[in-house]
Amino acid sequence: MASGSTAERVIVAGAGLAALRGAEAMREAGFSGPLTIVGDEPYRPYDRPPLSKHVLTGETPADATTLPSSLGTDVAWILGSAATRLDRAARTLHLADGRALPYDRLLIATGTRARPWPNPHEGRLSGVFTLRGRDDAAALRAALAARPRRVLVIGGGFIGCEVASLCRQLGLRATLVESGPTLLSRVLGSAVGGFIGAIHEGRGVDLRCGSEVEWLEGEDGRLVRAHLTDGTRIEADVVVIALGALRNTEWLDGSGLSADPGGVDCDAAGYVLDRDGQPDLRIAAAGDVARFPHPLYGGRRAALEHWSHAVAQGIHAGRLLAGVKPEVPYGALPTFWSTQGDVVVKSAGLTTGADAVAFTQGEPGSGRFVAVYGREGRCVAAVSVDSARWLPAHAELVATAAPFPPHGAAADRPARGITILAPGFA
């Protein structure tokens, strides 16, 4: 599609951050033809990070999270109706409301949804919540404002940690149950996760690592307690299910594209691959749902659920569909941040597959430190805990695949020097 072409129709499937930035990038690159954005929620794109922070405290109303946009009135919005099927032969996108939309170019940015509680009946009890969308945040905010006796959070990832910490900030009793050995162990490893867990315990979170909730008990349709596999019972008025996300790829079944629950596959340029591994030059993908070969990690395929990644890849995919060929493969350094009470965790790079970690700044036991992750003798990720000023220099080590462990003096390096943990920490 030539830049500035008006003859072809573009559809964006999804109405989140990556979709919005992709659509804006198309217009900015000169595409002036028909552009339609389709979303399953009835809202224009909104910012998700505040949902687990300022919205839950009541500082920001859920309906005040709409993202600013440069799009004009020449964009068609179809909201509240999800994409349900893709017919590539007929170049048609089918929606839940029965509409069939023809396209010439398609951006897939359908994102993720919260993983539900495995027992649907228990998951429907009043007092049981997930946290992914605007409506979820508004409902949970109302429940917290009612001052429940105890909030139980199931899952010790970033969302679970943020919710538990926020409950303590609101003066609510909070118990967090995590099946792994520490909080965030799947993402940051047990060493860093252990230090973060200690920070949360110090702020009054009742932390139960190495435990699992077996079933949720209700009375008259309302949650009253949770039963753990070890026989322990936890009385709670509110349960927040924070078990991760599911990528929205089911609607691509039968399309001939290479897609599964782990994401929709893209080539290095950003085009979506078919089942034979060939790119469909009419379709690109971006955001949480896109799985792509990351050049910083030897082409290992990754699907990332990061705010900055959604922006960068959305822009990349939008320009691609507008006819702007990339000079280099998409490979922005993954970055992420999480605010947990007064603790700010920021990261750069991917910890997946790391075989060692080094604490290079601060004292982990003090709650302020930087950790660098290594794999096969190279720096692959860095995480700062209340030490954000040190992260850019460490991010450069990751971006350049510098030797691990990193060398050079550090102004506030722990007195005992860099601590290296053996493989198996993650």
Automatic annotation (TrEMBL):
Its cofactor is FAD. Residues 9-314 form the FAD/NAD(P)-binding domain. InterPro entries: FAD-oxidoreductase/Apoptosis (IPR050446), FAD/NAD-bd_sf (IPR036188), FAD/NAD-binding_dom (IPR023753), FAD/NAD-linked_Rdtase_dimer_sf (IPR016156), Reductase_C (IPR028202). Residues 336-410 form the Reductase C-terminal domain. The keyword Oxidoreductase applies. It holds the Pfam family Pyr_redox_2. It comes from the Bacteria. The keyword Oxidoreductase applies. Keywords: FAD, Flavoprotein, Oxidoreductase. PANTHER family: APOPTOSIS-INDUCING FACTOR 1 (PTHR43557), RIESKE DOMAIN-CONTAINING PROTEIN-RELATED (PTHR43557:SF2). This is FAD-dependent oxidoreductase. It comes from Methylobacterium brachiatum.
